[in-house]
Every structure is written in C-alpha cells, then in structure tokens.
From TrEMBL, chains A, B:
Gene3D superfamilies: NAD(P)-binding Rossmann-like Domain, ProC-like, C-terminal domain. It comes from the Bacteria. Pfam families: DUF2520 (PF10728), F420_oxidored (PF03807). This is DUF2520 domain-containing protein. SUPFAM superfamilies: 6-phosphogluconate dehydrogenase C-terminal domain-like, NAD(P)-binding Rossmann-fold domains. It comes from Sporocytophaga myxococcoides. Residues 2-77 form the Pyrroline-5-carboxylate reductase catalytic N-terminal domain. Residues 121-245 form the DUF2520 domain.
C-alpha cells in the first residue's frame, strides 16, 4: 500500500478483511504509516519505494492524483508485480513504464475513522492486459459486490458525474448553510427535506422529482430570491444559471 | 382544507392523526377532493368557498403559490375564522382582507401516497396578531416536534436555502444521470456516494466535507472535465461557475 491517507486507511483493512495480506505500507508521513500498520495484521512500515524484494503481487498507489506520477517514478517492482492507481480521472498509461499496471477506482468519499460498507461501493477496474485486468477485477470483487471493468472513458464519465452530484451538491449545501448561519437558523432544519429529496431522486428519477420555483416557472418567486441575493453576486450567478437550465430542460420534456 | 394536492393529501390526515377534525375539503378537481375525503373521518367535499356556516376554526389554503391570491379572493370565513396559507415565499399580507390570517410552512417535499414522518418536519408559522400566532403555532406543534414561529424574512430565507440545497442539488443529479444514461451506466452507481456525502455534510459541515478537483485546485482534472463537456454548453457553464466558487470560497478559508 503506497499512501496512508483517507482511502488507504479504509482500503488496506478492507483488503485484509477479504483475506489478503498487506505486507508493506509506504507513506511520506511516517506517523500516518505507523497508524495504518497498527490496524493491519503484519504489515511493515517501509521508507523506500524499492519493492524488488517484496513478496507482494499487487502494489496500490493511494495518493492524491497530482502525486501519482512523481511517486510512481520512484517505485521499483518485483518481477510480475502489478502496479495500480486509484484515481477516477488519471489514465492508466501514466504507469506504462511498468510491465503490468492498471487502476482500481472506488466511487466513494472516505473520512478517517468513519466506517463505510465496502460491499456496497462501486469499484471500477482497468488493466494493461487481459491477465492483469482479471487480477484487478478479482481484487475489486473480493471487497465489493459492485466491482466491474470499465474503460478509461467510462471511468472518467463516472468521476465527472460524481463531481456534479456529490462535490457540487455539497457546495450547494455550503451555500444554503451560509445563508442560514447569517440568520441564526440551524442548518439541520434542512436534513429531512434533503434525505427525502435524495430518496425521491432514486425512487422516481430526478427529472420527475424536480420541484421548486424554476420548474413551475414561478417568475415572481425567482425575482424575490434574486433580490434576497442582491449582495451575493456569486450565489446569484449560480442561482441564475441553474434556474435557467431547469426551465430549459423542463420546457423540453 | 382548501386544495387536495400533494401537500393537502399529507397534511389533512396528519391533522386528524393529531386529534383535529377536517370538516371540509374544497378542490377545483372534484375527484381529487373525493379521494382525500375518503382518507378522512367525516370530511365533506364542498364545491363552494363560502365557509360562513362552517364550524371549523382554521382554514388552510394548500394550493400552488400562484393560485393563493385568486383562491383567497373567493373565500368567506365564519366570525373569528383563521385563514392560513402554506407557502414558503408568499407574505401573509396577501390574506390581509381577512380578520385573522397567517401561514404554516412545512419544509418538506411531498409525493402522493409516499409516507413522510411529520414529527420530524420543520414547520414555520406566522400569524397576523398574537392570538392568531399562538393558534397557528399550536396547530403546527400538534403534528410536528419541530414547529416554531418565524418571521416572513426568515421563512423566505429558509425557502431560498431549500431551493439551493434540494431543488438545485436535484437538478445536479439530473445532470449526472443524463451523462451516465448516455453511456449506458446505471444511475444507482452514485447512490452510496451521495448518501455518504449527505451524511458527512451534517456530521462535519459541508465546507469541511468538500472534496473533489475544485477544492484541490486540480486544474488538469478540471480541464479534462471541461473537455468532456465540450458539446454541452449549459453543463459547462454550471460546471465553471460552481468550480470557480468552490476555489474562491476555499481559498479564503
């Protein structure tokens, strides 16, 4: 395991629960590596990326996307070793100076010390050759019932859709919270509405579940909202764009 | 009960479960009124908005925001009758030709035949005078543990924050789904990520829970995403605006 951050600290124990052994943990942060090793059966904290003497078959890079190339340039593998990254957007070709390589991308957000149920997490796998692909898919399937092979193009699309639906929606929650905070209203007031909205989107389809002033083309409420946002240019811009797009999409359907 | 749509069909039974009686149901759509009456103990479907002979104390307008003024203009109340609307954005002053009036705004999205737990639903109440305010708050508290008095200004703000967090986030889900659909990927792939994202936002605060390329200022991934969106100008615009705002907000903090 190369890395000891949020993903690594969930993935390594999940792999051991599935019957694999994590032999080595490498991290630029020795304390964090030590912490992770302490959660594992018999893993050694290592300070070198030279794995030529390692008994491991698969080596997993679980670091920030930006650091993958730099880290991988320092890695030496044993014969037949497979090197994986865990990125949603990076091509596996950035590992192409190795003989066997690929990716294993778990579609989930991880927080240290916050349990997730791996069996439900979609895992997208890709390998440099057929044999490697099989090994990576098998690794994915050992920890999740929702592992499948996906091309780089599909993986990137899934990642982009995750950015829209999770990262951007989370930013909208920040916007909502900051407006409520300014008025001393507790953010948790939105919780029942949001749980129901999310449930509905999957039960009946987000396009049918849409409610609110934009889909009703309720111009007077939209004008009211823009007035409230008069001193928040950034919020106003996002409000306008999404409202326009809702009106457009729902006029077509 | 004036109206028999999504909200009315949930609110009327909830009121009866709390020990009140719904005496009359009025709706422009007689079938829908009949349906709702059949769910109530002893309510009459009425075709007139002249309630001068009614024994009811409180009259609730649960129709679309746009129709409140038109409908209320046709209503006649008995002496001391209180007239409420259920809107998140309309001022109670649109009912000011009545003696006692106010609003009761439940912050939730309702779908016919889909149960919700009323006790958890935040209800914002407002009345035209102190006595009326008390009655409306008591009505709200009888069905929910989260009913409280809120000024028009606060109610509008809560509604606006609900639009950002629920309506707009739902539209982002539509965007994500439409991209996945085009590539034959099942939308449910996003479900575990989204549940976790929502949970995290309330457990640790959306600003701290933010992940993704924008908060990491990962320009190469952002460029990649914009390239994928090259034939989707509307999606691209929203992607750019939200990404810019995430970068801005997180540079300040």
């Amino acid at each position: 395991m190369i890395g000891s951050g949020n993903l690594a600290s969930h993935l390594a124990p999940a792999l051991e629960n599935a019957g694999h052994f994590v032999n080595e943990v490498y991290s630029r942060n020795p304390n964090s590596a030590k912490n992770l090793c302490s959660m594992l059966y018999n893993a050694a904290c290592v300070s070198s990326l030279n794995f030529t003497q390692s008994k491991s078959a698969i080596f997993i890079i679980a670091v920030n996307d930006d650091a993958i190339e730099e880290v991988s340039a320092q890695i030496s593998l044993p014969p037949n070793g497979i090197l994986l990254h865990t990125s949603g957007t990076k091509s596996i070709s950035i590992l192409s100076c190795f003989e066997h390589f690929g990716s294993l991308y778990p579609l989930q957000t991880f927080t240290k010390r916050k349990k997730v149920s791996w069996e439900e997490i979609p895992i997208l796998t890709e390998g440099s050759d057929e044999e490697t692909s099989k090994h990576i898919l098998a690794l994915g399937k050992s920890i999740s019932t929702k592992a499948f092979q996906a091309s780089e193009e599909k993986r990137k699309l899934v990642h982009l859709s995750a950015v829209f639906s999770a990262n951007f929606a989370n930013h909208l929650l920040y916007m909502a919270k900051s407006m409520l905070d300014e008025n001393d209203i507790d953010f948790t007031i939105l919780q029942p509405l949001l749980s129901e909205t999310l449930k509905k989107a999957f039960e009946i389809d987000p396009i049918k579940a849409q409610t609110g002033p934009a889909v009703r083309k309720d111009i007077s409420t939209i004008r009211d909202h823009l007035k409230i946002l008069d001193n928040k240019e950034d919020f106003k811009k996002i409000y306008k764009d999404i409202t326009e797009n809702i009106i457009k999409v729902h006029s077509q359907s």
